[in-house]
Amino acid sequence: MSTILITISFVLMFWAAAPRVAGAAGGILQIPSSDSLAHCIPSCGDVDIFYPFGIGPGCFRQGFDLTCNHSTKHPKLFLGSSTVQVTDMYHGGFSTPIIFTLTTTPGTYTYTMSWEAPAKGITIGGDNTFYVVGCDFDVTLFEYGTQDVVGSCMSRCGGKKAPTGVPCNGIGCCVIQLPRDLPGFQAKLVSTNTTATQSDWLHPGIMAFMSLDDYEYRDNTTAIFSSWTNVRNFHGAMLRVTIVDQPSCETAQMKNASYACSSCQNSSSGGYGCYCNRQGNPYILDGCMQGTSGPTSPK
Ligand SMILES: *[C@@H]1O[C@H](CO)[C@@H](O)[C@H](O)[C@H]1NC(C)=O
Ligand SMILES: *[C@@H]1O[C@H](CO)[C@@H](O)[C@H](O)[C@H]1NC(C)=O
Ligand SMILES: *[C@@H]1O[C@H](CO)[C@@H](O)[C@H](O)[C@H]1NC(C)=O
Ligand SMILES: *[C@@H]1O[C@H](CO)[C@@H](O)[C@H](O)[C@H]1NC(C)=O
Ligand SMILES: *[C@@H]1O[C@H](CO)[C@@H](O)[C@H](O)[C@H]1NC(C)=O
Which residues constitute the signal peptide according to the record (predicted)? Predict the structure, then answer.
């Protein structure tokens, strides 16, 4: 067996340079009212910002600070000082691109891809799927940290180009559905024919991305191949957020920390998540909508 060389070219680098948990000053721990957040920046580019995330003192819960970078034509939103970009935000979560392109080298068979959440309390939601596109490989996905096997899939092309317009089910494309929320992952890819992965002049190499389990991608590889030419078109992965400064719903309620929670769920990884029965933001005072007479669009 030849030396294992890792030659991954990240299209986008997702490594957090340093843990940002200790990060920016000015984070709050009590539950704010929407009035006390009125001065906060509501959006960055076309991404709306929802508490507990925020920019600037008094606008975010400790550990949930964001940075809006205006140096590009379209401002970009990032988690703290990390390189994890926020491309869309929801109550309790956000989406971020997690995309890898591998340039395979003849004679090199093993490649790895990995992604780790930049802070405790951020996980890749179990409703995401890992899509891997290319010819003649086996992939195994491991949970970051525990190294537990999460799933595996394989692709064979039988000496032909990866076909488009077919489901992503093992010919030129395969998927691994996540069984649960993960703090990150490592994917080990073994190429079974390094000639085959380079045989397609249009899409040389192998590409992988994490995204919601989306029929548009899963049932017809055409959408995947058309996004490959401009990877920024890919739908991002859905990340979930839990509050980890309290160990459970009960302790949070005792400290009034979950004031607007219509329903509170312990997280398996410690901490809790807060949800509204209807719409609204459970992380602010009276933030959940109470039928039609409730607050209109709280942020
Ligand atoms: C914004 O992005 C530019 C270009 O990527 C980078 O050089 C700069 O350091 C960033 N600014 C901040 C405040 O992060
Ligand atoms: C796959 O998607 C493409 C582009 O949207 C479409 O033209 C094609 O008919 C689809 N193929 C199948 C089998 O649904
Ligand atoms: C490897 O891939 C090339 C190009 O697709 C093909 O011609 C060749 O038969 C494959 N080799 C094996 C052992 O499958
Ligand atoms: C949450 O966790 C705490 C302590 O681990 C436990 O006592 C409690 O019953 C759990 N609550 C729910 C709603 O699962
Ligand atoms: C929680 O809120 C209730 C009602 O506002 C208040 O009476 C109580 O003192 C609070 N408890 C703590 C620990 O802050």
Answer: 1-23
- What are the residue boundaries of the structural domains of the chain, listed by start? 19-81, 97-239, 245-293
What separation in Å is there between the alpha carbon of 56 and the centre of ligand 4? 33
Atom 13 of ligand 1 has which residue's CA nearest to it? 69
Atom of ligand 4 nearest to the CA of 272: 1
Residue 94 three-state SS: strand
Which residues does residue 116 pair with via DSSP β-bridges, in sequence order?
184
Regarding the beta carbon of 263 and ligand 4, being less than 6 Å apart is answered: no
Q: How far is the CA of 254 from the centre of ligand 4 (A)?
A: 13
Per-residue pLDDT of the chain (299 residues; tens, 9 = 90+): 333 333 333 333 333 333 344 457 788 888 888 899 999 999 999 999 999 999 999 999 988 999 999 998 899 999 998 999 999 999 889 999 999 999 888 888 999 999 999 888 899 999 999 999 999 999 999 999 999 999 999 999 988 888 889 999 999 999 999 999 999 999 999 999 888 777 666 677 899 999 988 888 888 898 888 887 776 778 899 999 888 888 888 888 887 666 667 788 888 777 888 888 888 898 888 888 875 444 444 44
Angle at the Cα of 17 from the Cα atoms of 151 and 235, rounded to 5 degrees: 50
* CA of 243 relative to ligand 5 center, distance in Å: 20
- Tell me how far the alpha carbon of residue 213 is from its chain's centroid: 13
Kindly report the pTM of this predicted structure: 0.82
CATH numeric code, 97-239: 2.60.120
Distance CA 129, CA 67 (A): 28
